[in-house]
């Protein structure tokens, strides 16, 4: 099982090499999210698990971006990037647990998680918090690698699963389980990155619930 301490340790180790290892190769997915959320002037955007801030230069300059991450080492690099590239649209970068955020309810227009859902200890808490801080009419978008349906890659990921703590993510993270456990109402799902390795998932800020007779699936915002 991953826990916050293991994640901090893992990303403390990754930080220096992160951009080289996971920068260019996963950048199409980051671009796809920024395009998907259709930024409007003045939008308040929250990026959870912002890491070293590889996505920050992709946002238009007329939005207001807040980034949070649990790893101070990753976040320091995001802060360096902000200063180096004069990213004045990035208003705040803070160390914070995305599963327990200190923001008020319903204050962001768009909330995004790039390659984070398979990293946090409890994806349901992450989604609950993203929904809480997002306006009811807001947009919530994820990009992540999910357990491969390819038998070779899928088996390899299952083999690596016991090493989640050392790796800092769950290699066998299932898309279906993510949707089922979090009650996300996916409005748009499509693959991104080379070889369709990752999936972008947009969800409405509503949660599924079952009617009392358990016959109808309803949405509540
Ligand atoms: C795979 S990296 C992705 C970084 C960045 N989003 C990107 O596109 O490269 C996952 C990030 O999520 C952060 N993270 C993991 N669990 C977290 C949590 N509970 N709260 C906030 N950040 C978390 C990690 O520290 C790490 O920086």
List the helices and strands and how they pair.
Blueprint: H1 4-36, E1 44-48, E2 64-69, H2 72-84, E3 90-95, E4 108-114, H3 123-133, E5 134-144, H4 151-160, H5 164-167, H6 175-182, E6 184-192, E7 198-210, E8 217-220
The structure holds S-adenosylmethionine.
Descriptive account of the structure:
The chain is of the alpha/beta class and 221 residues long. 36% of the residues lie in helices and 28% in strands. The protein has six helices and eight strands. It has helices at residues 4-36, 72-84, 123-133, 151-160, 164-167, 175-182; strands at 44-48, 64-69, 90-95, 108-114, 134-144, 184-192, 198-210, 217-220. Strands 1, 2, 3, 4, 5, 6, 7 and 8 form an eight-stranded mixed β-sheet that branches. Helix 3 links the parallel strand 4 and strand 5 (134-144). The radius of gyration is 17 Å and the shape is globular. Mean pLDDT is 90; it is low at 214-218. Bound molecules: S-adenosylmethionine. S-adenosylmethionine is lined by residues 7, 11, 22, 30, 48-51, 54-55, 68-71, 74, 97-99, 114-116, 119-120.
């Amino acid at each position: 099982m991953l826990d916050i301490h293991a994640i901090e340790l893992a990303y403390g180790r990754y930080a220096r090499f992160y951009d080289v290892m996971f920068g260019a190769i996963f950048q199409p997915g980051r671009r796809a999210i920024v395009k998907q959320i259709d930024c409007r002037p003045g939008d308040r955007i929250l990026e959870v698990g912002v890491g070293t801030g590889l996505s920050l230069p992709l946002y238009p300059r007329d939005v207001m971006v807040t980034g949070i991450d649990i790893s101070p080492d990753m976040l320091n690099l995001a802060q360096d990037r902000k200063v180096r590239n004069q990213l004045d649209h990035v208003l705040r970068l803070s160390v914070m647990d995305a599963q327990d955020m200190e923001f008020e309810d319903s204050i962001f227009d768009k909330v995004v998680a790039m390659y984070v859902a398979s990293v946090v200890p409890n994806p349901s808490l992450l989604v609950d918090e993203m929904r809480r801080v997002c306006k009811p009419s807001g947009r919530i978008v994820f990009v992540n690698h999910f357990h491969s349906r390819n038998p070779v890659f899928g088996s390899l990921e299952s083999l690596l699963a016991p090493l989640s703590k050392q790796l800092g993510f769950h290699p066998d993270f299932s898309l279906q389980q993510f949707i089922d456990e979090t009650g996300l109402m996916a409005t748009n799902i499509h693959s991104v990155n080379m070889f369709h390795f990752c999936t972008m998932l947009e969800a409405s800020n509503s949660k599924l619930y079952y009617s009392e007779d358990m016959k109808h699936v309803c949405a509540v915002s």
